[in-house]
Amino acid sequence: MLVALMASACFAEDITDAEAVLRADGTPGDPEYGAYLAQECAACHLAESTSAVPSIAGIEPGYFRMAMAEYGSRIRENAAMENVARSLGDEELAALAAYFATNQH
Amino acid sequence: MEFSRRQTMQIAAAVGAAALSAPNIARAATPKLVVVGGGTGGASVAKYVAAAAKGAVDVTLVERNPLYMTCYFSNLYLGDHWDFDRLAHNYEAMKAVHGVNVVHAHAQSVGDGAVTLSDGSTLAYDRAVVAPGIDFKYELYEGFDEEIASTLVPHAYKSGNQLLLLKQQIMGMEDGGTVVIATPPNPYRCPPGPYERASMIAGWLSKHKPASKVLILDPKSKHSKQGLFTEAWNRLYPGMVEWVGGDFTGGALPVVDAKNRTVITADDEEFEADVLNFIPAQKAGQIAIDSGLTGDGDWASVDPMTLESTLVPGVHVLGDACANGDMPKSGFSANSQAKVCAQAVMAAMTGKKAFPPRFRNTCWSLVGDDYGIKVGANYKAGDGKIEKTDGFISQTNEDDATHAATAAEGFGWYEAMTSDIFG
Ligand SMILES: Cc1cc2nc3c(=O)[nH]c(=O)nc-3n(C[C@H](O)[C@H](O)[C@H](O)COP(=O)(O)OP(=O)(O)OC[C@H]3O[C@@H](n4cnc5c(N)ncnc54)[C@H](O)[C@@H]3O)c2cc1C
Prior knowledge:
heterodimer, A: Cytochrome Bc1 Complex, Chain D, domain 2, 6 helices, B: alpha/beta, FAD/NAD(P)-binding domain, 5-stranded parallel sheet
């Protein structure tokens, strides 16, 4: 996972937090929908990282979009997260990013 | 994505009719939600509604036990991978953090705006959720009942004391003995559960009583994650685990000779055990049946948009007790359904906007030290039932690092899931 994380840290430069919260058509995602979607993540992600499941609390929107793209394209391989990524379209990703943007600390 | 408005309207329509006919919103008093069953599904709903409502809904949770013992990881306890005490979770945060009124009592029935408790008292509700888990169809078996299960032949399929009994029996068995696991017919709670159990028992025996055997008697001709379990048994416990599948019962359910720990099939074949773990056929928790939620069947039929009963309006059923379409009966599923149900309940009781339902399951099974396998899928509210959209499963011939990572993920999931429910 470490290698994947380092690689994605470089890729993450490619998408800014400001871009991350937008849908493909340029309109902003719905943070309220994002809050609903984020409930799903709590089934596996704790506030603190465990050995195999990193924390996503306070995750930056740009980094989040990049990571999801990497699970979606299997640059990062993890069947459970790929399954999550597959279930999230542009609408959902923008919504989650918009939600994470409201939670920056 | 064009889904959202249309599906949102569907939910609004589905719950709106009930909300309008019952004047809960107009009523001055805070509307009341009563949840029966403080297990994985029920406790998740109570917490999520209370967190979203912030006092706008009065949430009461009725649970007969003071502590919740998870079934997930109970197999790991049998294999010495998890402590018994760590299966227990309490309702302190539910009360103190989320403001849920927790009532420890046995509920007898639900309907007509009230939950009746076993002492005869009632709790009025505007909307109710029933999540009682499973009960067993003892009536199908000759020679097997709850008394025998709690003293001689544990099913250990509700965690707790029977789990302790099963472990004691395994620990007390002579080396060279046979542990027989008789598995239930479909549908039942946790499809991979009996096979994870076989793996965990074999793992323990291989370290402490290596001449012993595990025999699985299965009324089904195939089982969950079969290729993956078989691969693991051959690799980790060669010659120790045997699976007898298909029609060993001769098509009918077996007879249990509890005193002699023997399973007798319909065509008179006898399987004698030193330790017998007999897991009976299952049905929705009794209160769902007694409250008319299951109709003529064993499980409560629900609207997949809202998890509301198709038979009793204003009452939602989720988790193992509902007819959950393509989803397996698992803790992960119950928690996922709870989040859909919670927002449907909020929409009905407070008018809050509801988003389209989304469901997911992921089940990890530990089969040995640092050796995990997993299966999972996404689901949607389909036509009259929850439908699978896509999924994944571990591959055969995965390397050690992948097995170890999957095992570690399973441990991470347990911490996250129990904190999501009880934290
Ligand atoms: C061996 C085994 C391994 C498993 N492993 C996994 C796993 O790895 N992952 C996974 O996701 N799932 C697993 N499961 C399945 C999981 O435990 C269940 O699917 C899950 O608990 C279902 O949740 P539920 O809320 O429907 O029922 P439960 O969690 O059983 O909760 C029902 C609650 O209702 C209470 N209750 C019932 N009737 C009444 C009444 N009349 N009055 C008051 N209270 C009442 C009960 O006391 C109980 O607390 C496993 C199950 C077993 C047996």
